[in-house]
Write a structure and sequence with these properties.
This protein is of the alpha/beta class. It has a single domain, classed as Undecaprenyl pyrophosphate synthetase. It is 50% helix and 14% strand. The protein is built from nine helices and six strands; from the N terminus they run αβααβαβαβαααββα. It has a six-stranded parallel beta sheet, sandwiched between helices. Helix 1 runs parallel beside helix 9 and helix 4 runs parallel beside helix 5. The protein is globular. The relative contact order is 0.17.
């Protein structure tokens, strides 16, 4: 057993004690209804762990994703949006993109069973038509198997927040024009509520809490419209290392904040 393994064995019971303490003081009546998650840090994890291939870190991250679903199910979070692949990622060299998309394809193939067990409805958002063919096919298979559920899991693939707003504006204008409205009349019709109705997931409430792993303190374009009044938890640990205790701390911090819907 190496030093890291010994440390992990020692820390595990300490984390359980810490988790129990957080849970005792967690106000479940103030939990977020919609959590957005930026799963960041796979490449840094691969370097830190000395992994021969970054694909191994993606595989660890995929298993962590399903653990995370268990945690959100435990607290009956009504909506979760997970950003697994950005639109900018699609411009990476093929040798970098291929292992990530291969692992994501396997993750997507497991989703129908995972969400059915948790009574969750599954949706995908993003520029899905621009995904590599194998991943696009996996998404199509998954969509065909998707069923209604009491809660919602949204998977963002090939997603960009600016692109979502552009697509919403185009869709809104196209529909208003199809109704025969002149340009001046279209301008008079446009407001925030109408634009919101044309976003990728208009039936999901705005994001209450955004969690980003890896210590990066920025949104990178994630859910720009929906996160206008969200609270943020920028967690230092890399996504493959993200623990239940990190999730609990994020929830605790959220419940302790006085939310302000303005400046």
């Amino acid at each position: 057993m190496n030093l890291n393994s010994i440390k992990a064995v020692v820390k595990k019971p300490l984390y359980r004690i810490y988790e129990s303490r957080i849970l005792r003081f967690l106000d479940r009546d103030r939990l977020p209804k919609h959590i957005g998650v930026i799963l960041d840090g796979h490449r840094r994890y691969a370097r830190a762990e000395g992994l021969a291939q970054v694909r191994e870190s993606y595989e660890v991250g995929a298993e962590k994703f399903f653990e995370f679903l268990d945690w959100t199910h435990e607290f009956e979070i009504q909506a979760v949006t997970c950003w697994l692949l950005s639109k900018e990622n699609l411009a990476r060299p093929a040798e970098e993109l291929a292992p990530l998309c291969d692992v994501l394809g396997g993750l997507v193939d497991r989703l129908p069973t995972a969400v059915a067990e948790r009574d969750v409805e599954l949706r995908f958002i993003g520029s899905l038509d621009q995904l590599p063919s194998d991943l696009r096919a996996a998404v199509k298979r998954c969509q065909d198997l998707s069923r209604p559920g009491n809660r919602r899991l949204t998977i963002a693939l090939g997603y960009g927040g600016r692109q979502e707003i552009v697509d919403a504006a185009k869709d809104m204008i196209t529909r208003l024009a199809a109704d025969g409205l002149a340009a001046e009349a279209i301008a008079d019709k446009v407001d925030a509520d109408m634009l919101a109705a044309h976003m990728y997931s208009p039936d999901v409430p705005d994001t209450d809490l955004v969690i980003r792993t890896s210590g990066e303190a920025r949104l990178s374009g994630f859910l720009l419209w929906q996160s206008a009044y969200a609270e943020y938890a920028f967690v230092d640990v890399l996504w493959p290392e993200f623990r239940r205790v990190d999730f609990l701390r994020s929830l605790r911090e959220f419940t302790h904040r006085e939310r302000r819907f303005g400046m």
